[in-house]
Amino acid sequence: MPHTFVLLFLIIIVVAIATYVIPAGVYEKVMNPETGVEEVDSESYKRVEQTPVPPADIFRAVPRGMGEAGWIIFLIFIIGGSFGMINATGAIQAGISKMVLSLQDKEKLIIPLTLLVFSLGGATFGMAESTLIFIPMGVILARSLKMDAITGMAMVFIGAMAGFSGGFLNPFTVGVAQELAGLPLFSGIVLRIIVQLVLVTIASIYIIRYSSRVKKDPSYSLIADIEREALLNEKIDDVVFTARHKLVLLVVGLGFGLIIYGVFNGWSTSTDLAAIFLAVGIVAALIGGHSPNTLAENFINGARDLTYGALIVGLARGIVVVLQDGQIIDTIIYASANLLSWLPSYLSASGMFVFQLFLNFFIPSGSGQAATTIPIMAPLGDLLGVSRQSVVLAYQMGDGFTNAIFPTSAILMAGLSVAKIPYGKWVRWVLPLMIWWAIAGIIVMIISVLINYGPF
């Protein structure tokens, strides 16, 4: 695999070349006064003057992408620095060491339970940015169980994505999509819960099989070299769990609770999340007995460790910048909708799902993808005999699945930077899981057509 930076820059070049080949086109967008969401007029597509991206703009896309992704880049730095302060107290290692001792011979329960817990976060409040805070602890927990960082990352991130893909109470994706499709809010909840449980089950089996092999033979890990280095620096056994450690973890737990409360109550997911975790880091470090100078040094060290990943997020955003400048996203949507119109209903439903899977590369925003595609796909579904509930389900699964693999997903790239997992290694690990999820998704779409999946 090429270096991650090289891979992303090559994708920018390929997309820029595509702006010379794919005709430019746009849909008109109108504001829906009832939902407050900017929608696409499905009948308004028109060709516009070609706007190919010149070679110089390929390089400009990188700093522009850094600027547009600035909020998450600085979120990464603040989370890294704050976790550096918390981690330096030794409380997390001590707490996890005690947990591991109490769960001896029951390690396999941790993976499905952790996946299920984080899937509930993804299904309810659209857990995304907040996974970045839990990933470091998932990595430490996995390593303490003689697994690897991929397992730790997966328990948290894949769990959240499984819930996000079911999204039975997610107001930011299912809620927006159902409003646009004219469906009762959070209707069709039973099938969505089933989808979530199926995805969690598949992921649990996949992760347990991988982690069991790593536990038996550490060289089986796709990041064995990284794990060897980590084991030299991380000592988890024989750590005394002191009262000071308990107080630090109490502060961290209260901080997490405040973050979850804030997400449910409409706080900013960037500035408020970063501010809360920064405050938690400072308070925890002071309780841990660190001086202000030591606290500052640990913050800098933690932020510095994530520089590589923070830059990746900005570079990945450059891909989206080129796509928008070339005005080819709407053309791709228009052509795909025309192609689907020739298929029978059960194939059309599956085709909508596959289309949304790949469209997520170009429009990684969940609510943005809903506002762009549902006004087009919902009327198309009416013509093809695909219920609007099935159209929303295709969107939801398609948007959720590929957040776990496409480099244009800022949260994925940020999570990998936090876990210090190379993107190429992650793709190699997660691709088979994505294939199993996609097969399950196609089966679900066919079933939804056969049962005429309706609003209830």
Automatic annotation (TrEMBL):
Membrane protein topology class: Multi-pass membrane protein
Top-level taxon of the source organism: Bacteria
Main subcellular location of this protein, as a coarse class: membrane
Transmembrane segments: 6-27, 69-89, 109-142, 149-169, 189-208, 247-267, 273-293, 305-323, 343-363, 404-423, 429-453
Alphabetized UniProt keyword annotations: Cell membrane, Membrane, Transmembrane, Transmembrane helix
Pfam families reported in the protein's UniProt record: DcuC (PF03606)
Protein location: Cell membrane
PANTHER family: BASIC AMINO ACID ANTIPORTER YFCC-RELATED
Protein name per UniProt: YfcC family protein
Species of origin: Sporosarcina quadrami
